[in-house]
Amino acid sequence: MMNQSGLQFNEDQMLKIVDRLGRKRSWKQALAVVHWVYSDKKRKHLRSRFVYTKLLSVLGFARRHEEALQIFYQMLGDRQLYPDMAAYHSVAVTLGQAGFLKELLKVIERMRQKPTKLIKTLRQKNWDPVLEPDVVVYNAILNACVPSRQWKAVSWVFIELRKNGLRPNGATYGLAMEVMLESGKYDRVYEFFRKMKSSGEAPKAITYKVLVRALWRENKIEEAVEAVRDMEQKGVIGTGSVYYELACCLCNNGRWREAMLEASSPS
């Protein structure tokens, strides 16, 4: 059927096919199409880094971390497909969401290494695809640290950011707070919240949710209520989960009337 479609399977067509399959959550079909098209000797020269990067995105969205890693290493072994920053972003975010910290650190090592085997076989000896991690990649590391509670790695990430002249963004501080929350380092949760505000980054709803949960775990009920009132004054939107968190906190401490009011607050 694919052969009879009349398609040339050029880059633009392949991007559209993989994108549509991804939107339908048909990651297996996307993987199969890319493999089938580029396995054909007549179309091998049409292999596209952008198509493979789109496939990485589709696999990441489907939470297919192992398959994404396999495609990524396939790209590393092919000059025509060699990953650019967009590909590194995609695989880093995917591995970060999965909590695959060791695999992510290996990816960063490869990012900084010259592919000597590939360079030896090329006419262009000055080709240098070496890249340095940016904020997106470092944020992915923090994300990977959440389930494994690797709280000591948070300081390393901030040191690396500073060393490379990179500015932490709101997601950086928010993820650092999540790592500290899961690690039971509640003082550090509050510390990163203060740093976030002093840096000029506006806390989002998820940030306040983490803050409220930390205060709840320390039985600081009034402080949790004050945090939500502060959120309201800042005009933060999309806060239904925060009110739910506060309602649970109040209900757990016998203040169910207040909890019902918070649970019915508009989000």
Describe the structure.
With 267 residues, this protein is mainly alpha-helical. Helix content is 68%, strand content 0%. The protein folds into three domains: 1-131, Serine Threonine Protein Phosphatase 5, Tetratricopeptide repeat; 142-195, no CATH class; 202-267, no CATH class. The chain has 15 helices and no strands. The longest helix is centred in the middle third of the chain and has 14 residues, at 85-98. The radius of gyration is 23 Å and the shape is elongated.
List keywords for this structure.
267 residues; mainly alpha; Serine Threonine Protein Phosphatase 5, Tetratricopeptide repeat
Number of strands: 0
> Which whole number gives the mean pLDDT?
91
Report the C-alpha radius of gyration, rounded: 23 Å
Instruction: Report, as a whole number of angstroms, the end-to-end distance.
Output: 49 Å
The secondary structure category is mainly alpha
What is the CATH first-level class name of the largest domain?
Mainly Alpha
Helix fraction bin: 55-70%
Please work out how many helical segments DSSP would assign.
Answer: 15
Report the sheet with the most strands, covering strand number, pairing sense and barrel closure.
Answer: none
Q: Identify the CATH homologous superfamily of the largest domain.
A: Tetratricopeptide repeat domain
Which consecutive residue ranges, at least 5 long each, have pLDDT under 50? none
Order of helices and strands: HHHHHHHHHHHHHHH
The proportion of strand residues reads: under 5%
Judging by the overall fold, what is the CATH architecture of the largest domain?
Answer: Alpha Horseshoe
The CATH topology of the largest domain is given as Serine Threonine Protein Phosphatase 5, Tetratricopeptide repeat
Characterize the overall form: elongated
Q: Provide the domain count.
A: 3
Keywords: Repeat
InterPro entries: DG1/EMB2279-like (IPR044645), PPR_rpt (IPR002885), TPR-like_helical_dom_sf (IPR011990)
Protein name: Pentacotripeptide-repeat region of PRORP domain-containing protein
Organism: Brassica cretica
